[in-house]
Amino acid sequence: MLASICVAAATLTSTTPEQIRLALQGANSNGDPTGMNVGWYTSEKANHVVAYGTEPNHLNLTAKGSDVEYHKNHGYHHFVDLPNLIPNTKYYYQINGDSEVRSFKSAPSGTEGTPFSVSLFGDMGWLGSKERPMVLAVDGLVRNWSAVPTRAQQEKLFRNGDIDMVWHLGDIAYADDAFAHDVVGGLYEDCYNGFVNWMQNISSAVPYMVSVGNHESECHSTVCVTDPVVGFQLNNFSAYNARWNMPSKTSGGVANMWYSWNYGPIHFVSINTETDFPGAGEEHKGDSGIFPAGKFGTDGEYLAWLEADLKAADAARKAGTGRKWIVAGGHRPQGDGLKTKALFDKYNVDLYVSGHAHTYARSYKSCSPPACNTALNSTATTTYTFCGGAGSDETNFTSAGQIYPGPEAGNPVFQTPETSSCLLQVVNSSHLTFKLISSLDGRVIDQLWI
Length: 450
Hints:
450 residues, alpha/beta, seven-stranded mixed β-sheet, 10 helices
């Protein structure tokens, strides 16, 4: 199965839709998503029309969209919004009359605790060093790595109906490290294309939400560094912002850099850990230090938006009209100078999930049924987690190593370098679970109740 997913693009025609991905869009007066954005890629210019409906043989609705060519002669990315969907309903859709009819389920309405699951991970590369051997292993790059076990485990979860949404917390594909697989070739776009095609059977069926990471900042291939035209086409998060279409318009965010959305009883917030605040990792320059980066908003705009968004969500929750939980996610962990901890404390964020550390760790528990363990509760309301061990070319593949530090202040309750992903599940109207899932055998390595 995984091999066929990897090579599927080889048989496509120039206008066949590939790299198909969904994202929630729109919001009604209650803040529920009302639409779905369908995105895809073609190597040549093509129409951007989607036929859709609630019956697979009766696609009676049609929507049109637009496309973007951010890197000349490297294809087109198309986006079409499907608006005014009936909540919690299975829809079928067809892109440009393509032979395949796909399907997705629209978002639920209201704030009730209808069960659903979100797969979360950051720092996931395309395939592994066996399938894509490393030519260079310098500056943090390694020769023995793999994201294949995580991709296989995602497939199992998806086929078992345990994934209703994916949230990729930055460092998507590691396309900027493509030079380490071919020093001379410019494989940045090939790597990004390969990864999204690799994930397509999931991303074309459930929303695939993304947050920005440092590896999205620019291309580091030889041609990008030596050719200023190519370099500037692929700098300052241009590929990331062109390839995805998150619901920033309806949440007051900016591009795919920061935004929020509701789903059932959770208010989700995708924060910007890379630019647009003092001391950000890519505040002025991208990872290479060569190309400019940042300035997606005016000075102070991002942090002002974040406070306003959290304040509104917390106020609605206290008034009994909002979502029960606030879950924030971003690429870098809280201790990386993000300027957000005071806001998370002030507005009672329940959970913050990040990547970047290429491992898993969790802070003190919020509560563990049947009774809270007060000895392990922090005074803050937020539980902090790293979920960055999905597999990347900067981390040696590992299958073991669990560490249980004591309850001293500042230590995590649990951490492990085992290759893994996370699963957030709404159990009912009063409880969430957050699980660490082994990519090797699917066992639950760690679990938190909120």
